[in-house]
Amino acid sequence: MDNYQQYYQYWPIAAVTLAVVGVSFTLQWVLAEFFPWQNLWKQRNAKLTVTTKSYKGKTVMITGANGAFGSRAAKLFADREVETLILVDVKDCAGVKADIEASYPATLKTKPNILVWQVDMMSYASCQELAKKVRQLKSLDHVLMTAGILSFARRESPEGWETSIQVNYISSALLALLFLPCLKSSPTNPSPPVLTFVTTFGVYPAGPTMSVPKTGSYLKHLSNNKDGMAQAHQYGRSKGLLLYFARELAARVSAAQNKGMRKVTINSADPGSAWTPLTNPNQGKLIPKLIMDFSAREPLTCATALVNGVSAGEDTHGKIVMDYERPSYPPFTVRKSGQAAQQRVWDETRDEFLTKVPELKDIYKVLDGQ
C-alpha cells in the first residue's frame, strides 16, 4: 500500500513533466516548420563583409537594380573594379548609375562600364527582348536576380498570372532559362559563372498553403487565389515555387554537362529582412511588423549577403546561401510530397514556356536529357 501511495504522490509531477516535454517538442516542430527564428536572429546580428576583394575583368548583371537591395549590391560591385555592370529594372536605372558614378572611392583604379537596360517582368516578350541584349555580351560572370514584388491586393498580369507569381516566379524562371546559354566566365575568371535567385524566410509560413491539388494545374491553383490571407501568402508561395525551380534547374544543369552544357553554378541567396519601400506597408500590420522588428537589419547588410551569394563557389550549386552558412531547404520541400511538387512545378512551367516562348525548345531538350 505504501508503494501505491508513493506512486500516486509523484504521478502529477511525472504528468506535468511529460506535458512540458510534449509542448517543448511540439513548439520546436512548429518553429522549424513555420518560423525559423534562429536563422532570423543570426541574420539580424550578423556582421558581413564582401568576401571577394575584386571583380576586375568581370561582367555582372543585376535585375531589380532600382530596388533597395539591387541598387546597394550594384554599388558594392562598382567599388570593387568590376569591368561591366548591367543594371536592369522595369524602371530606368539612370539614377542608380548616376549615384554610383558620383561616389566612386578615390582608390578605385578602374571605373566600370555601366549599362542601363529595362525589362517588364509582366511580359514574356519583354523578357525575350532583354535576352537578345544579353546574347550580345562576350561574357557574363554573375547574374543576381533581385527583381520582385510584394503585392497586398490581387492583380493579374497580361500573361494571365497573379502578379506575384508572374514576377517572382514565372518571369524569374524564364529569364534564368534564357540567360543560361549566355553564362560564360570572362578570361580573368577561373570559376564557373553564377546565377543567383533570391529567396526569403517567408517561404516557411507559406508552406501549409502550398499543397498540391489532386487534379488540375498546380501553378494555376496557386495563381487563382483570393484577396485576404491567401494574397498575404502570395510572396512566400511565389518564392517557394522559385526554390523548387532553382533546385530542379541546378540538378538538370549538372546532369547536362556530359551533353556539352557549360558548367554553371545555380544557387539561391537569402538576404534576410529589412525595412524598405517594398516592406514598409507592413508597418501598419501587427504580426508582420512584429516579425520585421525581430529580424530586420540594414539594407546594405542584405545587399552584402546577396553579393556574397552570387560570388560563391561551385560548392553552393543547388543550395541556399545565407550569410556564411548553407541552411537546409524548408522541411516541406524535402519530403516526398515536396519532391513530387517540385517535379510538378518543373513540368507545368515547361509546358507554359514551350507554348508561349518556343525559343526555349532547344534549352529544354538539353535539360530534359533528350
Automatic annotation (TrEMBL):
The chain crosses the membrane at residues 12-35. Signal peptide: none annotated. GO terms for molecular function: oxidoreductase activity. It comes from the Eukaryota. Keywords: Membrane, Oxidoreductase, Transmembrane, Transmembrane helix. The keyword Membrane applies. PANTHER family: PHOSPHATIDYLINOSITOL-GLYCAN BIOSYNTHESIS CLASS F PROTEIN, PHOSPHATIDYLINOSITOL-GLYCAN BIOSYNTHESIS CLASS F PROTEIN-RELATED. This is Ketoreductase (KR) domain-containing protein. It comes from Oidiodendron maius (strain Zn). The lineage of its organism: Eukaryota, Fungi, Dikarya, Ascomycota, Pezizomycotina.
